[in-house]
Amino acid sequence: NAGVTQTPKFRILKIGQSMTLQCAQDMNHNYMYWYRQDPGMGLKLIYYSVGAGITDKGEVPNGYNVSRSTTEDFPLRLELAAPSQTSVYFCASSYSVPGLAGGPPEQYFGPGTRLTVT
Amino acid sequence: QKEVEQDPGPLSVPEGAIVSLNCTYSNSAFQYFMWYRQYSRKGPELLMYTYSSGNKEDGRFTAQVDKSSKYISLFIRDSQPSDSATYLCAVYGGATNKLIFGTGTLLAVQP
Q1: Contact A28/A102 with Cβ under 8 angstroms?
Q2: Does pLDDT of B32 surpass 80?
Q3: Please, are residues B87 and B104 in contact by the beta-carbon 8 Å criterion?
Q4: For the CA atoms of chain A, what is the radius of gyration?
Q5: Measured between beta carbons, which residues in chain A are less than 8 angstroms from residue B42?
Q6: What is the pLDDT of residues B57-88, one digit of tens each?
Q7: What distance in Å separates residue B8's CA from the closest CA in chain A?
Q8: How do beta strands B105-110 and B11-14 pair?
Q9: Is the dihedral of CA B33, A102, A41, B59 positive or negative?
Q10: pLDDT tens-digit profile of A20-70?
Q11: Is the CB of A90 less than 8 angstroms away from the CB of B41?
Q12: Residue of B nearest to A42 (CA)
């Protein structure tokens, strides 16, 4: 299994440009997540999905959009890039948790995309 | 008040030292407490987790939770240079079904 894969690894965007960060997983996980990680700020949840066709906002969704047409893929779209979106973006996936007795949602992370907006 | 607080470090120790990494959390509804390890320029990976209070041991690593003081700890015995990484604590449970991460502590183990 490849696990969680992300493309591209690096990207430099100009202010106002658009791009899509790709994420795919081959573990048949129904939950998928997008995080951004800034120095000293930890991981912040942007969007998540509990299954194909279902997405919801996380803590910092402004400036981003997502879609989930298949179980495997969860792309993140930046429409009008701003310098504040310079960050490292991680995609993750997990099984759903039927209840607390089912154990915590172990999230499997991709290798990340380093994005710079100038 | 942040839901999870973690000292960002950096923490530098000599090889063989015992390392103590800590977090505090604010919501008593959290039930699962996790530690993720993140090597430089890689994604985080789950190291271990505990449910409710108590200790859990896995080789050189021990996770400890004190729910009365809302304190989470990770101890690393006989630390190795390969343990050099950022360690993130995370909590789960309560009304949300999302993980909440600490900011991470950067650990460097010097040979």
Answers
A1: no
A2: yes
A3: yes
A4: 14
A5: 111-112
A6: 999 999 999 999 999 999 999 999 999 999 99
A7: 7
A8: parallel
A9: positive
A10: 999 999 999 989 999 999 987 889 999 999 899 999 999 999 999 999 999
A11: no
A12: B103
State the amino acid at position A104 in one-letter form: P
CA atoms within 13 A of residue A18's CA, in its CB half-sphere: 6
Q: Chain A residue with minimal CA distance to B32?
A: A104
From the candidates B3, B6, B49, B97, which should be mutated to test the interface with A, based on the most A CB atoms within 10 A? B97
Nearest by CB to A41, from B32, B45, B103: name it. B103
* Closest C-alpha among A25, A51, A35, A49 to residue A87: A35
In one-letter notation, the amino acid at residue A1 is N
Contacts of B56 in chain A (CB under 8 A): none
What pLDDT shows up at residue A34? 97
Burial class (CB in 10 A: 0-12, 13-18, 19+), B94: middle
